[in-house]
Amino acid sequence: MDFSAELYCLLHRGSSGDLEYYQRLCQGADRVLELGCGDGRVAQSLAEAGHRVLGVDLHPGMIERAEASKRSLTASARDRLDYRVADISQLEVEGLFDRVVLPFTTVFCLSATEKRSCLESALRHLRPGGLFALDTYDAQIFLDEDWGDDDDFVPMTMLTHEGAELTIFERTRTNLAEQIADVTYGHQIHSGPKAGEWIEYTIRHHYCSNGALYALLKDVGFGDIEVFGGFDKEPLTGDSERVVITARPPEQP
Ligand SMILES: C[S@@+](CC[C@H](N)C(=O)[O-])C[C@H]1O[C@@H](n2cnc3c(N)ncnc32)[C@H](O)[C@@H]1O
């Protein structure tokens, strides 16, 4: 959790179609819980769509950014939106929710033990008849082959941020035995007061197969689990860019 929220948010703006997907998923819902809300990208759009939203994130810098961007919302959307700094693998918040969402690969931020306790908590916080959803990438590429330490920095994109030009590089190193991918972002700053500086941070992904996610959801007690290959409920194939999973609490007897 030592990455800079500012640098992280420069680069991670979600996946194409994800906001629309979570809006559709939440239609008819009153309360929505977003686990790992980051700077509030998804939570904010759901509050604007009329839902009462609680966004939770462990990174205080993320919640600071979320609170800051909340100021640009209408008064009614602001009233519907709350944020909290908390660990989603040990979450206890008051009340039940119609939807619990875990967007944009956040599930891979969690170790195997944390995944389990996070999903248990998601289930505990869902109202009967509610719906849980997550999206992530297909980790099969990392399961097929150990990338080890072979991968070196490759340029990803060039950006201008606060008047300074920078090139962002990415490097992925994996450990197949432990199902860990360390993704390092390097920022080469070309102009402005920090010209010549190199800033890097690493995000650790605890990846797993889609089958393992399915089995875990089933094991913690979810039912009606569906796995899709995108935000339009496409079938999952080897070419799917996103894996989208929905699940429901078990039917009441
Ligand atoms: C990939 S970002 C997703 C942000 C947001 N959901 C979005 O779609 O833009 C993952 C977020 O999960 C948060 N996170 C990681 N581990 C967490 C934990 N154990 N408890 C709470 N938040 C966590 C990170 O701080 C980060 O903001």
Describe this structure in words.
With about 250 residues, this protein is of the alpha/beta class. The protein has 2 domains: about 5-135 and about 210-250, Rossmann fold (3-Layer(aba) Sandwich); about 140-205. The protein is built from 8 helices and 11 strands. The protein has helices at about 5-10, 20-25, 40-50, 60-70, 75-80, 110-125, 140-145, 210-220, and strands spanning about 30-35, 50-55, 80-85, 95-100, 125-135, 155-160, 165-175, 180-190, 200-205, 225-230, 245-250. The strands form 2 sheets. Strands 3-2-1-4-5-11-10 form a 7-stranded mixed sheet, sandwiched between helices. Strands 6-7-8-9 form a 4-stranded antiparallel sheet, with no helix packed on it. A hairpin with a 2-residue loop joins strand 6 and strand 7. Helix 2 (about 20-25) packs across helix 3 (about 40-50). The chain starts with a helix and ends in a 5-residue tail after the last strand. The mean pLDDT is about 95. S-adenosylmethionine binds near residues 38 and 42.
Structural features:
single chain; 253 residues; alpha/beta; Rossmann fold; 2 domains; seven-stranded mixed β-sheet; four-stranded antiparallel β-sheet; 8 helices; 11 strands; binds S-adenosylmethionine
